[in-house]
């Protein structure tokens, strides 16, 4: 399964049923033990909708969104567009580039308690570790929430990929 920013789906629901299902999705909650959590935030206006992950920032610029529109045809078509948080991606990339520069341009490092010039293989090992950490952070903070939002949307509206 590949990752696309724009997708088109079809559903057997009518446009009004799809809007009702979306509003139910926005009001639904997940439960864990005795805690309950909001699944997603969003808004519906006419045939347009926006879904985003639960967050605490005021403008939602740090979390991914799915914007979409419902087209009342037969069958009902739903176009979605993923809006990743570009600010977070840029911040991660800045820290990644800075970390890699520090690793490759530092003259001496303390390795196993000895201060010496690291070999190229040691620099590459640390660089791969830094890249792995930032890749995991990007996946956990951006890609995984988007996949969860898309799964909630597919389940609520009974969506099928239009190939």
Description:
Keywords: Membrane, Transmembrane, Transmembrane helix. This protein has 163 residues and is of the alpha+beta class. The chain folds into 2 domains: 93 residues, TATA-Binding Protein, CATH 3.30.310; 49 residues, no CATH class. It is built from 3 helices and 10 strands. The strands form 3 sheets. A 6-stranded antiparallel sheet has the order 4-5-6-7-1-10, with helices on one face. Strands 2-3 form a two-stranded antiparallel ribbon. Strand 6 and strand 7 form a beta hairpin. Helix 1 packs across helix 3 and helix 2 packs antiparallel against helix 3. It is elongated. It starts with 5 loop residues before the first strand and ends with a strand.
Annotated CATH homologous superfamily of the largest domain: Kinase associated domain 1, KA1
The overall pLDDT, averaged over residues, is 84
Q: Please state the overall shape, judged from the principal axes of the Cα atoms.
A: elongated
Q: Which architecture of the largest domain would the CATH scheme give at its second level? A: 2-Layer Sandwich
Work out the helicity level.
Answer: 40-55%
Structural class: alpha+beta
* Portion in strands: 25-35%
Instruction: Let me know the largest β-sheet.
Output: 6 strands, antiparallel
Number of H/I helices: 3
DSSP strand count: 10
Query: Mind telling me the C-alpha Rg?
Result: 22 Å
Q: Give the strand line-up of the largest sheet.
A: 4-5-6-7-1-10
CATH class of the largest domain: Alpha Beta
Taking the alpha carbons of the first and last residues, their distance comes to 13 Å
Number of domains: 2
Order of helices and strands: EHEEEEEEHEEHE
CATH T-level fold name of the largest domain: TATA-Binding Protein
Q: Regions with pLDDT < 50 over 5+ consecutive residues?
A: none
Keywords: Membrane, Transmembrane, Transmembrane helix
Transmembrane segments: 86-106, 126-144
């Amino acid at each position: 399964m590949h990752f696309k920013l724009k997708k088109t789906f079809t559903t057997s629901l009518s446009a009004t049923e799809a809007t009702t299902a979306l509003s139910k999705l926005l009001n639904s909650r997940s439960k864990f033990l005795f805690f309950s959590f909001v699944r997603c935030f969003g808004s519906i206006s006419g045939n347009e909708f926006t879904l985003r992950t639960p967050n605490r920032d005021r403008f939602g610029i740090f979390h991914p969104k799915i914007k979409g529109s419902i087209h009342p045809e037969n069958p009902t078509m739903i176009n979605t567009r993923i809006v990743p948080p570009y600010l977070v991606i840029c911040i991660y990339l800045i820290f990644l580039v800075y970390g890699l520069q520090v690793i490759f341009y530092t003259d001496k490092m303390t390795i196993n308690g000895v201060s010496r010039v690291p070999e190229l293989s040691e620099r590459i090992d640390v660089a791969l570790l830094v890249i792995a950490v930032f890749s995991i952070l990007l996946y956990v903070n951006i890609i995984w929430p988007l996949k969860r939002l898309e799964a909630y949307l597919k389940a609520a509206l009974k969506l099928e990929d239009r190939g």
